[in-house]
Amino acid sequence: MAVIGKELLEILEDPQTLKCIAATDRDGIPHISYKGTLHVEEDVIVFYDILQSSQINKNLVHAIWFEKKVAISILSKDRQSFHIVGVPFKCVTAGAYFEKTYERLRAEKGDVDLNAIWYIRPEQVRENTFSVRKAEEEQNYPVLKHIDRMIKPEFLEQ
Amino acid sequence: MARDKEWRKKELSLKEVQERYPDIPKSMILKVDLQRRGLTYSDAAVAKIDPDIHLVNAAGANRFRVSADYVPDGLLMRDGSYLVISNFDYEKKEPERDPYLIDVVDDQIVIVDQDEVVDWIQGYWEKPDFYNQKASNGEPLNTYVACRPQRLEITINSYCHFWDTPGEGCKYCPMSPNYKLSGKTEERYDLKYYQEAFAEAVKQKGRNTIVILTGGSILSGEEVLDDELQVYMDVLKMIGEFFEPGQRFPSQLIATAFHERQLERLYEETGLMIYTPDIEVLNKEKFEWICPGKARHVGYEEWKRRIFKAVDIFGKGNVTTGVVLGVEQATPNGFPTEDEAFRAITEEAEHIISHGVALAANIWRATPRSAFQNQNTPSLDYYIRTLREFDRLQRKYISNPYTDDYRRCGAHVGLDLMRTYGEV
């Protein structure tokens, strides 16, 4: 299981952070959905699905049944981005904890429902911010670029 | 120990069936096999039961069982679905096949077969708040309203009058023998106690998504089934008082097949949403042998016609019918091979599903005190092959089948597959 670092934990707790999850349905069609409630509990990603008929819930059910992976993308208010690959391993739809969460969400958000509480085990976490990815690429694949970027400037000017 | 000690050599194992049908969730195949073979609990698993939290031997839910074992009413699976497992008794001394074991490993509740952990579960069903309260007559409220994790359940009649004529009860069903064994004298209770229990039950926020009414058939009345209709309508009208006037409320009635005049009354005069007249057996000849009371008082073709008529009245997607899957192979008059049974019942299933009626297929267990108690049930492969075909047909014909899903029941696990149907 991949570990979510302190920096990303803080970003996830910021209400201005954008958090979305992508999963495919049984026909392989991807669906992406923004999930403001996505957070981390004991190293596991948790979110609340608050629509009873949501497509992302159907796709997550497909993922938990067939051991498929899902992708999560995080974008902070200062445009730091992170990519997480995870595996849904538990879906809670009933019980005292579910009811307590239902009541809390309704107190916070008004007239919403609670379809399921999803638990996703992160398997891969990496920063996707452009400057970080560019630096990684230059270090790991120094020749993976158009050749004109490597030519001495004087030859380009001729 | 199993009745036939060699049974594992005669059929595909759980793993082999899971490998054979890679498009069916392994967890669903396991759930079918748990219902088919039954389960037992280790001491460690029993120690995980907290009677203040969990549902154990709820009184109102026991019309099909007499066992008073200290075991959970059902399991919470890790995919968020529920498994109804203790609503019927299993043969304990000489079970047809070895049951699974619920055990605890590293503080996690797990499912074990032949000393191998095959999956883990979230836990046991939790008890609703109203179960700790009593009605005005001092009886526990759960005598009148039972529950599953997201549903309320009212069993109106504890006795089925198809059993009034010897030999006419459905051969797989133990309900009326259990009623006689219980020594009860009242088939149903006063309406006010259902009202008291329902009023308390609906106060719990975030728990319930539907109320289900069911019970044994009542044949009396000016016309056959008129009294059964009236009893259900009285309860539905009482429940309707809790909602805005004229509003349909999330509700399901699992009852005998009413004719169109009765159905129109049911629809017009109550807020009922889903109607489920269980046909039980998908073949006329086998139906007449297995359900002789239903055959004599209604008839197979007439039962089907009434189901289709109900679709006209309640709307496509709001009518389902239950079957006891596997019973078509009971001896001596059932289909002699699984291939013959598969061909016959899937053809009939297509006819029914093509009218917009979802099939809620329950896994047949040769239940103690039923006429079929010593029978052998089909292989796991047969159940999965058939449920897979039912699902294909439902995807083909029904665009909006969400009303009788895992949330509302938890017994007919084949309909779990609807959880990934397209957005509705």
Provide the structure class of chain A. alpha+beta
In the CATH hierarchy, what is the architecture of chain A at level 2? Roll
Number of strands of chain A: 7
Q: Would you tell me which CATH topology of chain A applies?
A: Pnp Oxidase, Chain A
Mean pLDDT of chain B: 92
Helix content of chain B: 25-40%
Strand coverage percent of chain A? 25-35%
- The rounded Rg of chain B comes to 20 Å
Order of helices and strands of chain A: HEEEEHEEHEHH
Roughly what fraction of the amino acids of chain B lie in strands?
15-25%
Biggest interface reads: A-B, 28 and 29 residues
- Oligomeric description of these chains: heterodimer
Write the CATH architecture name of the largest domain in chain B. Alpha-Beta Barrel
Q: What class do helices, strands and sheet pairing of chain B give?
A: alpha/beta
How would you describe what is shown here?
Chain A is α+β, with helices and mostly antiparallel strands and 158 residues long. Chain A has 5 helices and 7 strands; from the N terminus they run H-E-E-E-E-H-E-E-H-E-H-H. Chain A has a single domain, classed as Pnp Oxidase, Chain A (Roll). A 7-stranded antiparallel sheet of chain A has the order 2-1-5-6-7-4-3. The longest helix of chain A has 14 residues, at 96-109. With 424 residues, chain B is α/β, with parallel strands linked by helices. Chain B has 12 helices and 13 strands. Chain B has helices at residues 14-20, 26-37, 43-47, 175-182, 191-201, 226-240, 260-269, 284-290, 292-297, 300-314, 338-353, 380-397, and strands at residues 39-41, 74-77, 82-84, 100-105, 108-113, 116-124, 146-148, 151-155, 210-214, 251-255, 274-277, 320-325, 358-363. In chain B, helix 11 links the parallel strand 12 and strand 13. Chains A and B meet through helix 2, strand 6 and helix 3 of A and helix 2 of B.
